[in-house]
Structure formats: C-alpha cells, structure tokens
Amino acid sequence: MQLLYVLWLMTYMLAGMLLQAQPCNYIIQPPATLGTTTILDPYTLPGIQPGDIICLEAGHYYQILVRNLQGEKDMPIILRNQSGRLEIRNQAHYGISVRNTRHFVVAGNGDPEQEYGLAVMEVAGGAGISFDQLSSNISLVHTEIAHTLFAGVIAKTDPDCSFASLRGQFTMQDVTIAHNYIHDTGLEGVYAGHSFYGGFRMQCNGSDTLVLPHVIEGIAVHNNRLERTGRNGIMVNSATKNCHIFDNVINADSQAETHNQMGGIQIGGGSTCDCFNNTISGGKGSGIEIFGQGEMRIFNNLIEFAGKSFKPDEPHFQYPKHGIYVRDSQANAPTNLLIAHNTIINPKSDGISFASQQAHGSRIHNNIITGPGSFQQIQSAAFIHHPGISLRVSHNLMLNSALQAGFTDYEQGNYTLKWFSPAVDSGLDLGDEGIRFDIHYAPRPMGSGYDMGAFEADPKNMTGELSFIQAYPNPFSDKLTISMYLPDTGILAFNLYNINGQRVYSSKHEQIGAGSHEITIDTSDLKQGIYFLQLFTESGNPVIRTLRL
C-alpha cells in the first residue's frame, strides 16, 4: 500500500510538471457576452486529437459545456487554465458539464502560480462540475468549487429509458478527484456513483421497469479539502473495484442536516473501498459511514467531534452520530472490515457502531477512542457498540477522557503521542494487513511495537527523563520485564496498580545509571485483569503503561 501511494504521488507530480510545460493546442477566451455558454466539442475545436491541450485564458466565464471528446489511455485530452485564474459564476444548472467524453482531464494548475486556477464560485441552480452522459476515464485536479445549489462534484450517469447507462451496458472507469478545494455546497462535496446500487424502478414507455445503475471500476478521491458541505463531505457509491479514499481533510460536513445523508465520508451501496489517512473534524454527521460490501480497510483516520454540533441539546440516542458507523449493504452481501489505527475523539454517540448483520467476523484493532457521548447510557459498549454481532476486537485504547491518552496537546488538536502514552508500543502487529505507515506516512512500527491510533510515535523524538520504556510480554503472566533507556543517571522507582487503583507492587528507589536496563518482577500472585505500571524518577515526572494479565 505504501509503495502504491508513493508511485501514485510520483506519477501525479510528474503529470503536473508535464502539464505546465506542454504548449496549448487551443486557446479559449472568456465570452464577450454575459450569459454565453462556452462549448467545447469536435465542432468548436476542429481537428482535436488525443493528447491535445485546451487552454482557458483567465477571466470570467458563465458556464462550460464539454461534449463528445475522446482521448486515449496514455494521451488524455486536457482542459486547463492559462496565465492566471478563471472563475465561473451563474444562476444556471451547472458550472462545467462533461458529457459523453472519455480520457479527459480538468486541471486548475496550468499556471504554477495558482493552486486553484480554475474556480467554479457560484452555481445557483445546480452542481459545480459534473461528469455524466456516459463519460469515463476522467480526472479533476486543482479546482475550487463553492456556493452550489447541489453537489460540488458529480461523477455518474443516471439511468434513463434509453438503458444505455445500465449495469452491463456501461461501466465508468478510472475516476480521479484530487487536490481540489470544495466548500459551501448545498448538497454533497463529492458525489460519485449512483446511490441505488440494488436498483430502483422507473417508468419507461408506460412500463414499470427495474433498472440497475452502472458501477465504477477504479476511483481515487484524495488530497481534497472540503468545508461546510450541505450533506456528506465525500460520498462514493457503486464503486465495486479499486476504490481508494485517502488524505482528504473534511471540516463541518452535513450542515443541511438531511437524514441518511450525514457523514464526513460515506462509502455507499455496492462499494468496496479502502479509506485511510483522512482527517474529519467538527461535522454534524458521523465521521465515516459504511454501507458498502466486501473486503475493506478503514485505517489511520483522525475523526474529531463527529456529530457533536448536531442538535447538541437533544439526547444523543434520539439523534445518534458516531465516529464510524457500519450499516447493512443494499445488496445483502457479506462485508468484512478491518477498522484499525483510527483516532476517534469525543463523538456525539458511539465511537464505532455496528448495525450490520453482514459484518460478522470484522476486525477492530489498534484504535484510540475517547469520550463517546453514549457512555453514560450504555457504559463500555459506547466505545465499540456491536449488539448481537460477532467481531474480533482487541488492542484498542478506550478512555472517557482524551486527557488520559497522552496526546502531545489535546487542547490544540495535536494527537501525536507523548512518550508515556499508554498507546505507545501497545498495538497489534498489522503488517500482514498492509498497514505499515501512519497518517503522515511515517513507518510503522518505529518503537518496539505498533502504536495505537492514527499516529506512530518516533522514540528518537520523544522527550523526558525516561526516553524509552517498554513492558513485556503484554499480556503478561507470571513474570513482567521492564525495559528502559535513561539518558542520565538518576533515581528510579515504579509501582503496579490494578484497575481499582490498588497498588499491588512497589519497588525501592534505586540509583540507576545512564543507558539501557531491564528489570524483571514476579507477578505470579496477581489475578487476571488490567494493570497500570507507573514509573518515576527523582524529578517526579511519571510514566504510565497499561498492561493486561
């Protein structure tokens, strides 16, 4: 997975450099008349070939219609800005509409001085940018989209009575939506694929007909910034193969409070997606909602305060919103999830909530969950709530207060781990699952074991008199070994407490020299349960580790 991401990023950066270096084959000027649609098709661009670049000069445009353009796999047709920033504002139904077009790129980085050189700043009657009417193999990069009545970006073809876009007749392939800034949308930020994967009925030629929408094979939604979306920040439906949602930053999703359309990220019906390294903060919806199917990995995501601003004065169970929420697939298909290494901070209701009877056997490991709002009602089940559903759950740090987690600076939203955090080196090794990096792509592990949560701590960068501490085995049995490194000579002592706060072991204060040390203690008389190891030096700064017997 890490190699795949690096190759993907290198390819993207190289494509960006080539894009800026290549000359324009067509140069389009802003329309002279207010309300004029700029049309780009084989008639207005005579002789257009795969690999050609269409350049839009800076200025104000009403709307842009792209239709019937055909690039090739390694030679897409590119539409980009030129010499500055162009803006689209209108009272119409779209900003840019791409129809019946394949192997096509819309890019706002034609001018290296402009991060978002192509901007759809207002569409009062519809969506910002849409890829529809059998369009496929498309990319959207470095655009800004804002103040739309509907979604910011739409990528799908809705069924009609021609039946040309039905499943088996048409497949949308290789969609990339990356490095865009999408904000203040009436509905979704990104809406890819049709919601009704299981089919719906429509009237065609006087007959009531069940239709199955097309699927998407190959979609990457990554490195986008989304703010204040009306519904889901990112919603991907009917994406049956090669779906990846990663490195997005989503703030204040679901402002319209539309039922069943409230999430930072929603993996919709029919989708099988890996969802990782996203940051989701302050939305009214759940952090990540999963209605898909098949084998999926949800990992290294940071989810802050999911749903806390949604009807805050009402009981959480009347309007529940969770850090991660799993619901049955539309197609009644089996679902096998690995939910790992997520940091979930103070959700309105549950940390991770399962309401899917199809997800038996899913695995939940190495997550940090703090302060779920449902704790007062259902106690420990509030952290991982799965009534009647058999899951494999272990090595999760679950705390009522985020202040107990050993974060670097909780008040400032810095959830990296201090050296004494109980999450350090306490996780399950998930290398065989392909999880070998953290939310910042630092390698896992960097200490003697995997850390819980989205962030992996580097022992070389940790500060404190005890710059490294490990207690093993964990779980332990009749013996417990404490391994430590002291940068300077000092007095060391330690205590062992049970879950009730009773001290069950205490060492003498001893002078310990600088360097590495190991101490083994006899724990054969202890009962099975959870214990807390406290170490301290003469400076009085404690170190705490959570252990299991």
Structural class: mainly beta
Q: What about the largest sheet?
A: 23 strands, parallel
Tell me roughly what share of residues is in helical segments. under 10%
The count of helical stretches stands at 2
Q: Which blocks of ≥5 consecutive residues have pLDDT under 50?
A: 1-15
Mean pLDDT: 90
Number of strands: 47
| Gap from first CA to last CA | 34 Å
Determine the strand fraction and express it as a percent band. Answer: 35-45%
The radius of gyration computed from the alpha-carbon positions, rounded to a whole number of angstroms, is 27 Å
Oligomerization? single chain
Rough shape? elongated
Write up what this structure looks like.
With 549 residues, the chain is mainly beta. Among the domains are: 151-433; 467-548, Macroglobulin (MG2) domain (Immunoglobulin-like), CATH 2.60.40. The chain contains two helices and 47 strands. The strands form six sheets. The chain has a 23-stranded parallel β-sheet that branches. It has a twelve-stranded parallel β-sheet with strand order 2-4-6-9-12-15-20-23-26-29-32-35, with no helix packed on it. Strands 42, 43, 44, 46 and 47 form a five-stranded antiparallel β-sheet that branches. Strand 42 and strand 43 (503-506) form a beta hairpin. The protein is elongated. The two termini are 34 Å apart. Residues 1-15 have low confidence and may be disordered.
Write a short abstract of this structure.
This protein has 549 residues and is mostly beta strands. It contains 2 helices and 47 strands.
Features:
mainly beta, Immunoglobulin-like, 23-stranded parallel sheet, 2 helices, elongated
